[in-house]
Write the C-alpha cells for this entry.
Amino acid sequence: MKIAFTTNASLLHIMDESKGAFFVFTNYGNDYTTYQYVTCYNLQLKSAFKEVIFFHHVPMHDDSLIVVTKKEAMYVKWCRRIENCVYNFNRKLKGYIDEKVTYVCATITYDGEYLILADSAGFINVWNTDSGFQPVAIYKSRVISLDSFPFKDCHVVCIILLLIQLYLIIFN
C-alpha cells in the first residue's frame, strides 16, 4: 500500500494496488490525526500494470495526484467544493511504454511543473505535468533512484546511476 496527502494534509489517499484503486479520506478534526472515508477512485489499470512505483501529490496544485505504475504514468485531478465531498475525478495519461520496457523510478519537481520518469531501457524522460503527451526532454542513463530540489531559479534532478554515481541535471 502507498499513501499520499493532498490539499494541505486535509485529504489522505491510500493506494490499494491489488484493486487498482485509491481511497480518499478527509481530516475529521483539527489535529490531522483522525480521518474519515469519503470516496474511492478506480484507476482502471490493466492487471499487469498494477504495481505502483510512485504515488505523490502534485506540489502547488491542490486536489491532484501523480500515479506511476511500471507501465503508465497518470495525472489525476478532482473537484472538491465542500470539505467532505470529493467528486468528478479526471484521469489524464501522461506516459505509456511498450511491453518490453518498464518504469523503474519517478519524481516530481518541487513546484509540480515537471514529472521525471526513468525506464528500464536507460532513458530519463522529463514531462510537463499540465500539458502534452510528449516529453520536453530525454536523457540517456540507467538509474535506480531519482529526486529533485530547487536551486535558485532552476530545477535540480538528482540521479543515482546503476554504478552508484551521482549525476545532476539542472534545467529552468
Remarks:
- Confidence is low (pLDDT under 50) at residues 162-166.
- The chain has one domain: 2-171.
- The domain at 2-171 is CATH 2.130.10.10 (Methylamine Dehydrogenase; Chain H).
